[in-house]
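Lecture 7 notes: from sequence to structure.
We start with the chain below.
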Amino acid sequence: MSVTVPGSDLADTVMERLTATYPTAADPDRAQQARAYMKDVAPFLGLPSPLRRELARTVLAGLPCPDETDCTAIALRCWELPEREYAYFAVDYLRRHVKHLSSGFLPVARHLVTTVSWWDTVDALAAHVVGGLVAADPKLRAEMDAWVEDENLWVARTALLHQLRYKDATDTERLFAYCLRQSGHPDFFIRKAIGWCLREYAKTDPDAVRGFVGRERGRLAPLSAREALKNL
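Predicted structure tokens for the same chain:
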């Protein structure tokens, strides 16, 4: 599904401030190091996270709370900019305001997940944005059932990780089913995600995870099983 950038006066103000503020603190050497670390997924300005978030607070100072249209416009416009820190700003902004987003935001989230994809943006979107949308509207679980089998590995990873912060609210049956559906996936990022979501749930119910891995060890990749049991 294609997405379009809606009009938003708030987004106009945010983007004007953001693109005037972030470049003033650019560090070319750090930018080069960050780009190499992130496997050349995108260029960087070279802003360390504490400074980037401090500048973001300056950008947003005095501005009103956004609605869903504002969030959509800001996220999509940030994603159109080449430097990765703008995407980080958008992810942080969506995390902060996820309670103002409806289930109708899910196609936008999918666009963000599948555009200039790498773990640095996908994982935060999965756990804090998509996860928040599904928690607020359980009907979206059906969408996650489809996403986990998507041919795009980042969409499948998002489905695996969307319950990462659910703790006692985790749908355990769905979590384990997702892990088994993708247990034979050849990609590192899927196998790692399986181990990660199991390891995180083990903080809530270690016996359930230990039992699941014990029963299904023959189907799980060694990496997934090892990661799942790392802290047990």
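Points to note: The longest helix spans residues 119-136. The mean pLDDT is 97.
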